[in-house]
Amino acid sequence: MTQFRNGIVIGCGSIGKKHAQYLGKICNELIVVDPIFKNILNVNKASNVNSYTYPSIDDVKINFNAEDVAVVSNWGPDHFKTVKEITAKGIRKIVLEKPCVDSLEEIDQLRNFALKNQLQISVNQGWFYEDLAQKILNTSTEMNLGKVVAIWITGGARCLSTAGSHWVSLVNQIYESDPIYLVSDASNHLINPRSPNLSYVDGVFSFMYSENRRLGINLSNFSSIEGRFEIYWRDAIGELNSENLKIFARSKNMKSDKITLYGQASEPIFHENIIDIDNRFKNLYSSFEKLDASQFPSILDQHLNVNKAILLSLIASEQKRKINFTEKIEEDFYCKKYGIS
Questions:
Q1: 111-129 pLDDT, tens digit each
Q2: Taking each helix axis from N to C terminus, what angle separates 104-116 and 79-88, rounded to the nearest 10 degrees?
Q3: CATH label, 4-127+280-305, candidates 3.40.630.30, 3.40.50.720, 3.40.50.1240, 3.30.310.250
């Protein structure tokens, strides 16, 4: 199935290679832009498309149009600059890796630039295009669990940006809102495997949503343990592990009207694979066919608000205070690039 004329991947690291492998199946020609990547065959063995590599975007002498798609999968601090460069070459459909950008200023700049140039941007952040949040909400309704009241995430060296972007995106969808305020105590140990110049953030992060619903993230860069993603209902707990969701509830005879009469959720009531992880890229790239052009700005806003929450968490830690999601941030922190990727 050919979906695009040209597919161009800017940044061919671990995630860029996956994009290139998938694009090789759905485009006529594949272009990889990376200053150190040479062997296109390593990412496209199963494809018969014409493939080309270039060290920089300036070296690509092709006039792109609406039949083409570009993937921005280079370092986060370079994303906005790259979006502008490929837009100048005619690209209008963009798959943007998370985090979208690494400063609050660039969030506003990217939003305005996308609107002005009528860009269709799909962000590979979280399980957005697998509708995982809606599946969890549907399960809540079907099992008569009530509303999700808290989500606790713990783990080792996962990074607030690297993994946290996915988590916050999912939680925002489950709660159907952005956080109201954020508190955090973050540390950056510069152990990012992509480059020692990129941030890799651990710490304790607290997000408060409406109706007293919470998200808590606790990470340590001194542990290699993957950790847990736990979902709390009033009388049940769920554990999300990749595409698998397990839910345990308190037995009916142990429930109480008093919330303080707590007990174990030991009765298994749900255990299913609720997403098809093999179709992740298919769902992402299909968004360009399934969505109307007018839908892209509001969806991009959702992704940018996740990016904003991550950055506000880092600012809250630096300023040692609670930050409201909608408050105006001082110029120095608004413009600061945090090197997340």
A1: 999 999 999 999 999 899 9
A2: 20
A3: 3.40.50.720
